[in-house]
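Why does residue order matter? Because the sequence determines the fold. Keep that principle in mind as you read this record.
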Amino acid sequence: MPFGKNTPSEEISGYIGSGLRLEGQLIFPGKVKFEGELKGRLQGEKLVIGETGFIEGEVEAVELICSGRIEGKILTKRLHLRKTARIKGEIFSEKLLVEEGAQIEGQIKVGEAQIQPSGDGKEAS
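Structure:
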């Protein structure tokens, strides 16, 4: 699958709607679409943050596609920032794709991953 492209066979295993506000740690398997608000930590496999999505804290995912806002730390293997993305904080990613219009304020390190994220709450070795 090409980086940043969705395939019809991908199924969303979870959805957090725009009216939902959470605080704490959320760990998920599969693909999750997040349009709510979270203060804390979000960890999993593939995460799609919609335009209304806002995370204050830490995001750890194998693949992250962001159209919303993140304030804090991002740890990922593949990061795609869409044109409406607003990032403030630290980014650590093996691969980074930034669309024109996305805003980033902070520190970026692209290259060798600092972590090996997984959806089970444990770091893979």
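Residues 119-125 have pLDDT under 50 and may be disordered.
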